[in-house]
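Severity: low
Component: inverse-folding endpoint
Summary: output formatting inconsistent between runs
Steps to reproduce: submit the following structure tokens with default settings.
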């Protein structure tokens, strides 16, 4: 389990983390979302014991990060943002070094090294200096180091940053697999990643938690959830026909392709009812389709204060 209680971090006059509290249980993947500078990395560094909080506490598997740093670090795998340090080392040398730091020995050490090298597909770059690797390979070396000692809790700062789409897919699969019996906290800027791997998402901005919900609860806050859209040759006529229809709260016309979005009031807008009404009023249309919620819109509204979280 990973717990944060009223964490604060002040850098001079800047309050980078302003009272963040949460609990992540085994089997959960909590995604930390937020604009640049929201305080995500700072919070993760405090949980990983790399940065002392100005106030508040963090615990990893019941061990207070400040009071029992060794026990807390043993229980945690941490992937910092950016490339792994020791860039002059090869992945083989670096992972061997981490294995020693973690106190792995003998057959267990060999088995764990083989397992992470295989899982992160590092065989082809094992002897090349880390500094000379592509961004994606550097990230994979960092992930291998984080999971090497098979910790029960993981804190991953933008784990798929710099990976190509296939590698992103691979790493998301790995995270889902790891999360089955572990606790995972990860940060991301990729909203589709939240739907793909997270069981819960926390939106932070200016050091505060603005929303803490499952991805589907967040999607349900989108005004596109339950909407329908269509293309009409005469969109003014289409709007006039649908205006005042029960269950319709408003419209938006896309500036690009001209698609007209019909937003619901309460329950989803019925595509059949919209089709029937347009037919009755003699309005030509095509491409009528139901819409689903959009996380990017929810994220923008919450982080820019356009809507109440
Ligand atoms: N060592 C430091 N000294 C001073 N200010 C810092 C330091 N580290 C971070 N900050 C500031 O604290 C705030 C939070 O930074 P942090 O890196 O935690 O944000 P983040 O949410 O991880 O952002 P990003 O998504 O860009 O990685 C930012 O305004 C940042 O400039």
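Observed output (run 2 of 3):
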């Amino acid at each position: 389990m990973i717990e944060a209680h009223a964490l604060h971090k002040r850098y001079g006059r800047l309050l980078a983390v302003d009272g963040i509290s949460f609990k992540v249980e085994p089997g959960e993947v909590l995604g930390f979302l937020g604009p640049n500078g929201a305080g995500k990395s700072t919070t993760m560094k405090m949980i990983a014991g790399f940065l002392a909080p100005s106030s508040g506490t963090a615990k990893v598997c019941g061990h207070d990060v400040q009071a029992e740093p060794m026990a807390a670090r043993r229980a945690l795998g941490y992937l910092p943002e950016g490339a792994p340090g020791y860039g002059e080392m090869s992945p083989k040398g670096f992972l061997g070094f981490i294995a020693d730091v973690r106190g792995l020995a003998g057959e267990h050490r060999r088995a764990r090294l083989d397992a992470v090298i295989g899982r992160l597909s590092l065989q082809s770059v094992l002897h090349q200096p880390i500094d000379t690797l592509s961004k994606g390979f550097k990230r994979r070396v960092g992930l291998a180091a984080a999971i090497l000692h098979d910790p029960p809790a993981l804190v991953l700062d933008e784990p798929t940053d710099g990976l190509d789409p296939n590698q992103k897919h691979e790493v998301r699969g790995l995270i889902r697999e790891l999360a089955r019996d572990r606790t995972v906290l990860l940060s991301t800027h990729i909203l589709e990643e939240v739907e793909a791997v997270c069981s819960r998402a926390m939106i932070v901005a200016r050091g505060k938690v603005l929303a803490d919900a499952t991805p589907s609860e967040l999607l349900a806050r989108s005004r596109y959830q339950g909407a329908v859209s269509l293309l009409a040759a005469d969109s003014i006529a289409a709007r006039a026909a649908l205006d005042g229809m029960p269950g319709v709260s408003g419209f938006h016309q896309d500036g690009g392709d001209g698609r007209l979005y019909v937003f619901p009031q309460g329950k989803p807008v019925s595509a059949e009812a919209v089709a029937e009404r347009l037919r009755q009023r003699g309005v030509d249309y095509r491409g009528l389709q139901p819409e689903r919620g959009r996380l990017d819109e929810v994220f923008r509204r919450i982080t820019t204060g356009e809507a109440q979280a």
